[in-house]
Amino acid sequence: MTFSVRIAVRGYELDTQGHLNNVVYHQYGDHARWECLRAAGISIDDLREAGVGPVTLESTIRFHRELRAGDEVEVTCAFEWGEGRTFRIRQEFRGADGELTGVAG
C-alpha cells in the first residue's frame, strides 16, 4: 500500500535559481513519513512509549525536474521490508501534472 500527501511549494523554500532547494525535498520526505504514521494512528508518543525510535540510516534523492514556488507536489511513501529491524521507505515526488520530479529510497 502506498500513502501520499500533497504539499504546496512556498517561496522561502527556493534556491537562488528559483527551484525548490534540495534540502527541502528531504524535509518533504520526512513530513510525508510522519503523516503516514499519523494516518495509521501512530504518534511519536506511541513510538516512545513502545521504546521505538526510527532512525534514518541513508537518505538520497535523484532529481528529475525542478519545482518552483506555487507548484504542488505529491509525496508518496511505500515501505519495503527487509530482514531484522531495518526497512526502506521508497518515496516519489510528483508534480500536479503527475510528472516525476524526484525519487528517494
Notes on the protein architecture:
With 105 residues, the protein is an alpha+beta fold. The protein is 23% helix and 32% strand. The protein has helices at 22-39, 44-49; strands at 2-8, 61-63, 72-81, 87-95, 100-104. The chain has a 5-stranded antiparallel sheet, covered by helices on one side. A hairpin with a 4-residue loop joins strand 4 and strand 5 (100-104).
Brief sketch in words of this structure:
With 105 residues, the chain is α+β, with helices and mostly antiparallel strands. 23% of the residues lie in helices and 32% in strands. It has helices at residues 22-39, 44-49, and strands spanning 2-8, 61-63, 72-81, 87-95, 100-104.
Strands of the largest sheet, in order across it? 1-3-4-5-2
Computed Rg: 15 Å
Total strand count, please?
A: 5
Number of alpha- plus pi-helical segments: 2
- Helix/strand class: alpha+beta
Spatial gap, N to C terminus: 16 Å
The main sheet comes to:
5 strands, antiparallel
Tags for this entry?
105 residues; alpha+beta; 5-stranded antiparallel beta sheet; 2 helices; 5 strands
Set down the secondary structure blueprint:
Blueprint: E1 2-8, H1 22-39, H2 44-49, E2 61-63, E3 72-81, E4 87-95, E5 100-104
